[in-house]
Amino acid sequence: MSTPGSARRVAASALFVLALLLSGCAAAQASAPAPTSTVEPPVSAPAQLVGSDAPLLAAPLAPQAVTSAPPALAQPATPTSGAVSSPTALPPTPDPLASPTAIPTPSPRPAGTPPRVGLQVGHLNSQDLPEELARLRTSTGARWGGVTEAELNLDIANRVKPLLEAHGVVVDILPATVPPAYDADAFIAIHADGSQSGAARGWKLATPWRTSQASRALLEAVAAAYGPATGLPQDTGGVTVNMRGYYAFNYRRHTHAIARTTPAIIVEMGFMTSAADRGVLFGQPDRVARGIAEGVLAYLRQRDPNNGAALLPPEFSTLVAGPGGATLRTAPRDDARTVANLDPEARLFPFERRDGWYQVFVRGGARLQGWVREDQVVVTNEQPSFPTASANP
Ligand SMILES: [Zn+2]
Does 61 map to a domain? Predict the structure, then answer.
């Protein structure tokens, strides 16, 4: 699905270079050019891209104080094949309280830049995943009857695209392989569920482990639109580790992943194995598409395109349980239910921090999550790495 875009690619590159020249941009990496690898937006609808829809366009900007040197976090520009890489090194952050502002915020897009949204079709062409994701090549997702999940996901993505384009959004339809450090104003991974039982139903959304304000706002906007648009129930509590740890979110580990600053969610639209859900997913797909599109548009309208800090996910150091162990609870409160009592030295991946508590993923086999009190854990110098999905959701 990749060939037709070369003219546009050249144009986009030229525009990007021009924009850099004009803006004297000091943070080229942060506003990296559009994806250059396998995927370009299908040209089927050349479209009135730079639409008249002013509210969605980037606001004019004061040249922002770019803190200092180029981001130390720049992703490799080219795929590194082979090797299940160790996580891309971040500078050690011995202090878990270190503010993310130590990292230069991304520079805003030049004024008038139309918003760009990536719609990733879950499992599409998964056999073409690069070496670093070879384990997911056979992960073809759910199916019902003769319909694969990728076919359903593609159908919905193709319906969302024109709804966004009608509001001046540039849309990339992306397969399972995400262009390296994919940089956009929103990234939506589109998936559908399957279950053995047939009774499971409903939709759910998740952000990456470490969630920027922007990703959270994107999730909330799509959640607010999707339920009413589709009439489908929410699969409350159904969010899995495989969703939070979605490979395309994992910019630390994978070259073929979103940029660190791309707001992102994964959408599980409903269960292909549920007759009730199929009534909407298969029978009324435009409602599904409308739910996603309205949510994305609401997010784009309400965000402040000049707020680069909102795009930065929080950073934490790796933790271990203290000498007395730690209690993992369901909520950041001493009276919340105990999930597990953790042994001293248990390795913890923190992804949120609130009121003296960390929300953590417990390394090791059990894939537990919960909250631990700060005074029960010890900061380590170990390089943080994201817990990875064991399968493609
Ligand atoms: Zn899937």
Answer: no
CATH number of the domain bearing residue 329: 2.30.30.40
Q: What is the CA radius of gyration of the chain?
A: 21
146 and 270 housed in the same domain = yes
Q: How far is the CA of 147 from the centre of ligand 1 (A)?
A: 13
* 307 in the same domain as 323: no
Task: Report how far ligand 1's centroid is from the alpha carbon of 371 (Å).
Answer: 28
**227: its two tokens:** 């339920």
In the predicted structure, residue 116 carries a pLDDT above the cut 50: yes
Distance of CA 127 to the CA centre of its chain: 21
Q: Give the end of a domain, one of 259, 280, 311.
A: 311
Amino acid present at 185: D
Contact 115, 171 (CB under 8 A): no
Distance 287 CA to ligand 1 centre (A): 19
What six digits make up the tokens of 265?
């969610």
**pLDDT at residue 324 is higher than 50:** yes
* Distance between Cα 144 and ligand 1 center (Å): 13
Which among 311, 328, 349 is the end of a domain?
311
Kindly report the CATH number assigned to the domain that includes residue 187: 3.40.630.40
CA distances from 305 to 185, 329, 353 (A): 9, 37, 25
pLDDT above 60 for 39: no
Q: Give the β-pairing of 264-271 and 204-206.
A: antiparallel
Three-state SS at 302: helix
Give the domain extent around 192: 27-48+109-311
Phi, psi angles (nearest 5°) of residue 48: -90, 70
Residue 378 has pLDDT above 50, yes or no: yes
How deeply is 202 buried, as exposed, middle or buried, from its count of CB atoms within 10 A (0-12, 13-18, 19+)? buried
> Phi and psi of 193, rounded to 5°?
-100, 165
Which of the pair, 279 or 387, is modelled with greater confidence? 279
pTM of the predicted model, to two decimals?
0.74
Residues 299 and 327 grouped into a single domain: no
CA distance 277 to 132: 34
Place of tokens 């001493």: 334
**Residue 15 domain-assigned (yes or no):** no
